[in-house]
């Protein structure tokens, strides 16, 4: 077993989690993003049985046998019952993948970095703090997050706000987090904060 610290990175939609993840990867740290696991579930043949279950819940989001992610996003944030059904299928797989990956890292003598990072958007909502040695929260004011998401995802403000309604108030997450990274200025400001935390 090595001494690598397992860090959970979280933050509300538009806070800049992906930017942080990419910067940490550029510094040769291991980073696993829970959203990437979800994308694999939707796209990979490895999860065919799981996809069939999802198709039964969301038949309107199937086109030529494939799941359409944008359609899924639109429906689940307008239909609480379908959202809960989908999460009951997907979240156990995501948690299992995180735990398996953590074990591999801790048992890998060749991984000699101080930290390994796991980006989990709903970390606090799903009470997953127990999986990590520390939780780092990426924070940006709501108005900035909304502008970023509209620009990035080409979705309307109403949908962004509905997504935000399904997430814990970011100020509550700030109180809970071990470290808080403020992302309300330029990219250099964000990188400078990360450089102080991560050698």
| Count of extended strands | 7
Strand order of the largest sheet: 2-5-1-6-7
Note the beta-strand portion. 5-15%
Terminus-to-terminus distance: 21 Å
Q: Assign the CATH superfamily.
A: P-loop containing nucleotide triphosphate hydrolases
Identify the CATH class: Alpha Beta
Q: Largest sheet, if any?
A: 5 strands, parallel
- Overall 3D geometry? globular
CATH topology: Rossmann fold
- Portion in helices: 40-55%
Computed over alpha carbons, the radius of gyration is 17 Å
Helix segment tally? 9
* Low-confidence parts: none
Would you mind describing this structure in some detail?
By secondary structure, the protein is of the alpha/beta class. It has a single domain, classed as Rossmann fold. It has 9 helices and 7 strands, in the order βαβααββααββαααβα. It has a 5-stranded parallel β-sheet, with helices on both faces. Helix 2 packs across helix 5 and helix 3 runs antiparallel to helix 5. The two termini are 21 Å apart.
Task: Summarize the entry for a quick read.
By secondary structure, the chain is an alpha/beta fold.
Task: Using brief descriptors, characterize the structure shown.
9 helices, two-stranded antiparallel sheet, alpha/beta, about 200 residues, about 50% helix, 5-stranded parallel beta sheet, Rossmann fold, 7 strands
């Amino acid at each position: 077993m090595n001494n690598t610290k397992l860090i959970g990175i979280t933050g509300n939609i538009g806070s800049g989690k992906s930017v942080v993840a990419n910067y940490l990867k550029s510094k040769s740290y291991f980073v696993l993003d829970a959203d990437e696991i979800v994308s694999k579930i939707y796209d990979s043949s490895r999860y065919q049985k799981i996809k069939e279950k999802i198709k039964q819940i969301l038949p309107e989001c199937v086109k030529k046998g494939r799941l359409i992610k944008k359609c899924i996003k639109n429906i689940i944030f307008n239909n609480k019952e379908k959202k809960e059904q989908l999460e009951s299928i997907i979240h156990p797989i995501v948690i299992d993948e995180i735990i398996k990956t953590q074990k591999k890292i801790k048992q890998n003598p060749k991984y000699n970095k101080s930290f390994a990072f796991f980006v989990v958007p709903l970390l606090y909502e799903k009470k997953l703090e127990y999986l990590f040695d520390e939780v780092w929260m990426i924070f940006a004011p709501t108005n900035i997050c909304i502008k970023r998401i509209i620009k990035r995802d080409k979705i309307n403000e109403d949908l962004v706000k509905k997504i935000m309604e399904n997430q814990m108030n970011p100020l509550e997450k700030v109180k809970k987090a071990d470290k808080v990274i403020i992302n309300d200025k330029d990219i250099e400001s964000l990188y400078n904060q990360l450089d102080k935390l991560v050698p």
